[in-house]
Every structure is written in C-alpha cells, then in structure tokens.
Amino acid sequence: MTRKPTAAKTGAKRVTRSGRPARRKPLKARQLTATADELTGFYRQMLLMRRFEEKAGQLYGMGLIGGFCHLYIGQEAVVSGIQSTLKDGDTILTSYRDHAHMLACGIKPELIMAELTGRAAGISGGKGGSMHMFSVDHGFYGGHGIVAAQVPIGTGLGFAHKYRETDNVSVVYFGDGASNQGQIYESFNMAELWGLPVIFVIENNKYAMGTAIKRASSEVELHRRGESFRIPGEAVDGMDVLAVREAAQRAVDWCRAGNGPILLEMNTYRYRGHSMSDPAKYRSKEEVQKMRADHDPIDQVKQRLLADNIMSEDDMKAMDKGIKATIADAVKFAQECPEPDSAALYRDVLVAASRKEIT
Predict the structure, then answer these.
(1) Is the pLDDT of residue 194 over 80?
(2) Per-residue model confidence (pLDDT) at position 292
(3) DSSP string, 63-111
(4) 258-295: per-residue pLDDT in tens?
(5) Torsional sign, CA 287, 289, 291, 294
C-alpha cells in the first residue's frame, strides 16, 4: 500500500479533525552564547538605560520633569535583548514606561531628556512628555498612556506589514496588569485569524500598578493567555539578556516565516514603584534587595565579561564614567533648550477653527 505524503513533506499545514490548523510550536531553545562584542554592547546599552533612568528620577524629584514618570530600572534586559533581533522596517510600541525603549531604538538621549523636561527640541516637540513619545523615523510608534491601548495599534501595524508584503514584524510590549484588558484578546483573535506578524511581549514585573499578579489574575502563567486563540507562547527569564535575545530571535524568525503571531512572557522585575509617586509598600525591601543581588540584568552581563576576561573592572569604570558624561550632556542640552512657543499648542491638533483664527 502506498503511503500519502505527510504535511511536513508537502509543506501543507497540518490540520485537526475540525478542519482548523493544528496548534503550532516554534523551534526549541538553543544554547545561550554571545560574542565579546555582543556582550560588551549589551552591557553598554543597559548601563546607559540605567543611568538615564536614575537621572530622570532625580530630575523628577527636583521638579524639572512634570506629570507622571515611570522608570524602567531593573527591566533593561527585555528591550535590549528583543531590539537586538530587529531590523529596519520593524515597528515597536509600548506603554508609558517607554524611555528605555526609545534609547534601544537609537534615539539620542538628549532628545529624550528634552522631551521629558518639556522642551521644544524634544522628540515630540516637548508636548508628549514622559508617557507619549513617538518617532516614526526610528520605528517607534509611541509610548501610550492608556493601559493596553498600544496592543490593537500594534496589531494594526502587523496588518500593514502583511498587506505591504514585507517580512517586517510588529513588536507590542505591555505589562502583566494590561494583560487582563479585553482589547488584547480582540487583538489576539484578529492577529491569529489573519496570520499577522505580531510579537506580543508581556513584561511581567509581578505587580502591575501595585497589586501582586496572583491577586489579580486567575491564570498567572501569562504566556498561556494566547492558547484559546491558537497562539503559541513562551515564558522567558526577562532578567537575562541572552535568554531574551534567544527567545526573541525565535519569535522574529517565526513571524518573518509567515506563521502568524506569537506571545512572549518576559518574567522581569522593576526596582522602583509603578511611577515616581508610588512608594511601593505592597512589597518588602528585602524582596527588592534579593532581586537586585541575585538577578540584576546588568550585573549578570558584568560577571560574564569579567569571567571571560573581555573587560576589566577598570574598563567598566571608564565606560560608566563616559555614560554618566553623556547623560550629563543630555541634561545640559535639555535645560538650555527653550520651551515650545504658544503657537505649538495648535500644531498637530485637530481643531474646529479656520487657519486664520489660530494664526
């Protein structure tokens, strides 16, 4: 009797008895490795993010940054690892905790600092502030102040990539708190139905705005949230930049190959409160100190660099000194820039008035 060719041999999608495509799984993880240049680059980038955020927190305390300010300290490995796998034309979106994401996109620190301090030279003209930065030129489609608002927008960008027949991907970051929002599941459904190249990234820092995940979510393994939509998911050590990079590369390859969306749960931890106004009394100081001591993403790379004799302690001190100088220059630039003029209030805004009335 002649056997029929299998789906694997013909390239056809394997289907279940219901006629729906079978659940798919990406390739298994490979060994975590990195070159000396890659490790050094990760260390430099994450240290830049850490020093930038520390300075932003200081400026906020001095009253030089207004509104809300959400710091990324402790989570640097997530965006650093993922961004290293992307290419020109890929797009990313995130929530209001967006400063590090912009740095990862290659936006100059001085333009971000100018935006934080409300200056005309800021990346959004000084009108976006901490939570609403944007740069199409860098593939960054915004920090978004409304919880989970970026997810359907990022799904739409995935649709645009597919419609234009490119192999670009849309990376959408959101937090564990946002993962309970209904618009996310509408996005999951559409992304899978249409086979969109979207990487949904849950930055699970365990406490959302101040409530432990086990108190707010009946399913705490957030990478399983896409199962009912047939979207594969994976839990990742979000404190290890190499683990993040490895998982992200598999996800990117999955999407570029036309397999549809994928979900990555990055288990990470923020050292500061939800925002600068949050005293974070819902967790102990001992818990935070233990995370810093045992899992700090920058320290993990530092130990690898030292163990492999790639950098010395003196090299690291020199790098840190240079980064602090870069941040100091960014602050100086921001403080010397003028604020937007009054006419800027009416630019880039839809108003029910004639041009003559607002000039």
Answers:
(1) yes
(2) 95
(3) TSS-S-----TT-HHHHHHHHTT--TT-EEEE-S--HHHHHHTT--HHH
(4) 999 999 999 999 999 999 999 999 999 999 999 999 99
(5) negative
232 CA to centre of own chain: 19
Residue 213: closest CA among 205, 224, 202: 205
pLDDT in tens, 167-180: 999 999 999 999 99
- Domain architecture of the chain: domains with CATH: 35-358 (3.40.50.970)
Which amino acid type is present at position 214?
K
Q: Give strand pairing partners of 263.
A: 200, 233
Q: In Å, how far are 175, 204, 206, 210, 275 from 215, measured between CA atoms?
A: 15, 14, 10, 11, 20
Q: Grade residue 137 by pLDDT with cuts at 50, 70 and 90.
A: very high
**DSSP string over 242-276:** HHHHHHHHHHHHHHHTT---EEEEEE---SS-SST
Question: Residue 100 CA to chain centroid, in angstroms?
Answer: 8
Torsion sign over Cα 5, 8, 13, 16: positive
How far apart, in whole angstroms, are the C-alpha atoms of residue 82 and residue 96? 18
Give yes or no for residue 25 having a pLDDT over 70.
no
Q: Which long-range contacts (CB under 8 A, 24 or more apart) does 317-323 make?
A: 319/43, 319/44, 319/47, 320/47, 320/51, 323/44, 323/47, 323/48, 323/51
Q: Select from 254, 266, 150 the least CA-distant residue to 196.
A: 254
pTM: 0.89
Residues 6+ apart with CB under 8 A from 326: 48, 109
